[in-house]
What we know:
Layout: H1 3-39, H2 52-60, H3 71-94, H4 111-126, H5 131-140, H6 144-168, H7 173-195, H8 204-223
Amino acid sequence: MTTQSKGNSEFLPRAGRVVAMLLPLLILSFSCGKVHAFTALPPRTTHCISTTRCLSKSIQNSNDRDSSSPSWKASFLSRRKAVVTVGTGFLSTLLRPSPAFAKEKPEPLTKELVQKTFGEVRFELEDPSGGVAALESKINNKEWEDILVFTKEYDLNMRKVKMGFARKLLTDSKVKDDALMLRNAVTFDLIGINRVSRPGRENQEEAKKYLGELKDDVTKFLEMEKTIVYPVE
């Protein structure tokens, strides 16, 4: 064997090992990017991240939709549910961590933890000092400028943080997927309120309609608390 042939024979196995190590990372990066971009928001807002910034962009891109029809919300939620069902199983397999990289053990699931976490969401919906009551007061008083600001910020506090933490405690995978749909619905309820509160488009009745839908969505979310199965002590 010549020196060049020997060098090539040693190089190929090393190259193969490098490719074997890098390929999963490339697949993971591509897959996560595609799934996130496809499932995060409707086609015109796929570049967004689900944050207050994303809600703001979603609101901005909804200008040409009919504010009197909720079909855009229903259409998106239907597509989102189908993608979540397929994507959840794929990603759970692809992203399953190895023991060496596993996260720290989560906080034990207890009734106290569940009551506290879901209580945060219930406070927002039912307490006179909660965010839903504050938003309702602004609508009743036609405080349109305040509503525009409030709806953009409330998505982060209510849906992403409080409802997000509560959803993580659900023990049934199907219920957890349904909870994700309700969280997304809350975002679009807020978008609906924002759209009918803009200058020249103020409509108190439409705002109240979307507020009613928001209340219904959060109520359905809270009912999922009773499906939680606690570990046997």
